[in-house]
Amino acid sequence: MTNNPKDVDRRINPPTTPRRAKTPAERVMPPVVYRLPGMDDVMVHSNLKYSDVDNPFLLMDVYTPPRLSSDASVPVVMLIHGGAGAQYKPKDWGFFQSWGRLIAASGMAAVMFTHRLGYPKPLLTEAALDLSNALDYIRSHAPSFKADPERIGLIAWSAGGPLLSPAMQQRTPFVRCLLAFYAYLDIQRSPSHIENESAETLKSFSPVSHLHGDSLATVPIFVARAGQDEIPMMNDSIDRFVAAALAANTPLTCMNHPSGEHGFDNQNDDDRSREIVAAALAFLRAHLGD
């Protein structure tokens, strides 16, 4: 009996089913793929109005470790979401809620706040003002959360990367470290940003523009890269930043997830994702310690 060539081809190269696009809920509601003991026991201070801006969605949640002593003073980690818009309530997504609990279970206070960074119009200036207001609020209210206003780290995801720029540009002493998870670090070649912002704004909000040769004056930076990132120009942006940071002798930690997709910390349940999340927490503890 002779095999039909088409049947042989189907056995060797079976037809593939096109991958179904994930819904927004499937991307933002699952928790981080890494867990620590005590995550369910952290304290959550919800829906704090941190700004006088007339926008009902500009709210903040603060996650603190359980059972802190009366004289405790823990460092603070500000979580900066991407271009969703405050009206979509990113602070209530399962992804950020689990990151908040994870950081608090690691002995730090996590601050998750909604800001006005949007898409397709980024509203970078407005979002930067929200970040500044959130920092002012948490620093002025630090005793209420047993937090140290002089030990703060910023961690940004995706389109939130440009909001790391002010801390790099102004050399704010209380900001001790910066982290970027699959985040835009140079928007000067990003079509969506170019269409909506001036060249001056693009440069100002590109972290790559604020790298300098004085490594002693540069805040330590952690960059996590998704090797299979599907967002246009994202890895191009990250790769240019990493090259420039090394050329400037910046204190840089870079970790790549070769098979990771955009959002691998809650989308790719594998050892490499967990390794990178654990390393990010260790980086925070190392640079925010006493």
Walk me through what this model shows.
α3 (94-105) links the parallel β3 (74-80) and β4. The protein has an 8-stranded mixed sheet with strand order 1-2-4-3-5-6-7-8, with helices on both faces. The radius of gyration is 20 Å and the shape is globular. It contains 10 helices and 8 strands. The chain has helices at residues 5-12, 24-28, 94-105, 124-140, 165-170, 191-194, 199-204, 234-247, 264-267, 271-288, and strands spanning 43-49, 59-64, 74-80, 109-113, 147-157, 175-181, 221-226, 252-257. With 290 residues, the chain is α/β, with parallel strands linked by helices. The model has no long low-confidence stretch (mean pLDDT 92). It has one domain (31-288): Rossmann fold (3-Layer(aba) Sandwich).
SSE succession: HHEEEHEHEHEHHEHEHH
| Strand fraction | 15-25%
CATH fold-level assignment: Rossmann fold
Share of helix among residues? 25-40%
Stretches where pLDDT falls below 50 for ≥5 residues? none
Global outline = globular
As for the number of domains, it is 1
The number of helical elements comes to 10
Helix-strand category: alpha/beta
The assigned CATH architecture is 3-Layer(aba) Sandwich
Mean pLDDT: 92
> How many strands appear in the DSSP assignment?
8
Major sheet: 8 strands, mixed
Name of the CATH homologous superfamily: Alpha/Beta hydrolase fold, catalytic domain
Q: How far is it from the N-terminal to the C-terminal residue, by CA?
A: 77 Å
The top level CATH class name: Alpha Beta
Query: Order of strands across the widest beta sheet?
Result: 1-2-4-3-5-6-7-8
Cα-based radius of gyration, to the nearest Å: 20 Å
